[in-house]
Structure formats: C-alpha cells, structure tokens
Design a protein that fits this description.
Number of strands: 10
CATH class of the largest domain: Alpha Beta
Strand content: 15-25%
Number of domains: 2
Structural class: alpha/beta
Radius of gyration: 26 Å
Length: 237
C-alpha cells in the first residue's frame, strides 16, 4: 500500500515539519518503507514531497498504525484465497513468444528451440494467427533423435514441413483468465505449456508449468519460507 493513500495533505504542516528537519518520503513509496524510515530516524512523522521536492503532506505514525489495523501494511499471504483469485495469466506468462510459420521446415524449428532454450513453439499461419504448438518432444519423435545430436539424423528429415508433423489446433487460454482457473490445463491435458491469446485472438504470450512453479517459489520466498534443495540424483549402477 502506498504512502499517498494514508497521508494527510497539509502543505503548511509539511513545510513546518521539514523546516524542523523531518525526513521526507515520496507519495508512491510503500508504507513498509515509510515505517522503516521512521524507525531508522527515530521520528513519528515523515514529510511527503512531490517530484519537485516540494512538501505537500505528512505521514504520521498514527497513520501507519491505522494501516496495520486494517491489514494494509502487511502483504497478504500467498495462500490467501481472495488474493490468489486476482492473479491473472498475464501476470505470469512470457509475453511476445517466439513463433514459427506453419510452412517452415523442421531444421528451422530445431534451430529456434536450441537457440532460444525453450521447449514449445507456437505455430502461426500467414495471418499470424495461432494454428498449433510444436514441442521439443514432437520434434524428437519426428526426427527419431535428440535435437542436440544432429549427426544421427538423415539430412532429408530436416526438410519436412511443420504442417506434416504438428497436431492441428491447440489448447489455449486468455490473458485475463485467473491462474486458479487454468491450472487444470496442465494437470488434465498433460501439456507443458499453453499459448495465451487476447480477446481479439491475437497471440500475446505463452505460459508453461515451469513459469507457474517459478512464481510459486518466489511467493514462498516473499512469505519468509526458507527453501531447501532436497532433490538427489540417482547414481548410475
């Protein structure tokens, strides 16, 4: 929550406090930062200044206390249902993903995936409309080899066009969809990534289960959880 929501607009009082040496803060700063500054300076009020460094308001300790009482200083828990319901696909997706034309060949697809380090390529037609999605797994199946070992693949296999390899159509979600409403796409459909369209059916992003897991990890860190790596590798026998 920002300072400007809780401060008192009083130019005279703000100028007077500043003349007495009160520290300042920007209206767009967070209440948490304001509380930390009050504590560090041993004061019970901060002067709120604009971009021109002119004082125009005060934030008092009593304002911060009111914010705490109403739950606005402490960020909501990542597990809070009401807060979680407001997380949108657009908040987590990778915007403007790389795409490939449906008439491109497999050699181009392999090059894009290896260069970009991703596992899914949205496939578009001549009008840049989504017609499918090509995964690294699809390419391995079509080429009969690992993408990083080209030497084992017959050269003419790379000339195959994507249209003959991909499965037509694709499961997609909208950028305004709630995260909680699209999780079953990964679990029920058993796919690793979904294209994201806006209401005009324009491709605006791609969301993978890895994006969701990375987001969950960051939320856990922000909640103060200490994360430990517990996975272990099985040694070859």
């Amino acid at each position: 929550m920002r300072v400007e929501i809780w401060m008192t607009r009083d130019v005279s009082a703000a100028r007077e406090a500043r003349a007495k040496g009160a520290p300042s803060i920007a209206p767009t700063d967070s209440l948490r930062r304001a509380a930390e500054r009050m504590t560090a300076n041993g004061v019970d009020a901060l002067v709120v200044v604009g971009e021109d460094d002119e004082p125009f308001g005060l934030l008092r300790a009593s304002d911060v206390v009111r914010a705490v009482a109403q739950g606005d200083l402490v960020p909501p828990s990542p597990l809070d249902a009401d807060w979680l319901s407001h997380v949108k696909v657009a908040d987590l997706m990778t915007p403007d993903p790389r795409t490939i034309d449906i008439d491109a060949d497999l050699e181009e697809a392999v090059g894009l995936i290896l260069e970009g380090g991703f596992r899914h390529l949205p496939v578009v037609d001549s009008n840049e409309r989504l017609v499918g999605i090509l995964s690294e797994r699809d390419l391995r199946a079509a080429l009969g080899a690992d993408l990083r070992d080209w030497s084992t693949v017959e050269e003419n296999r790379f000339e195959e066009v994507i249209a003959n390899v991909m499965v037509p159509g694709a499961v997609f979600v909208r950028d305004h969809n709630r995260l909680v409403d699209i999780l079953d796409v990964f679990t029920d459909e058993r796919i690793g990534a979904v294209p994201v369209l806006d209401d005009d059916d324009v491709l605006v992003g791609i969301l993978s289960y890895v994006d969701v897991l990375n987001w969950m990890r960051e939320q856990a860190k922000q909640a103060g959880l200490r994360l430990e790596r517990v996975a272990e590798a099985v040694e070859s026998l």
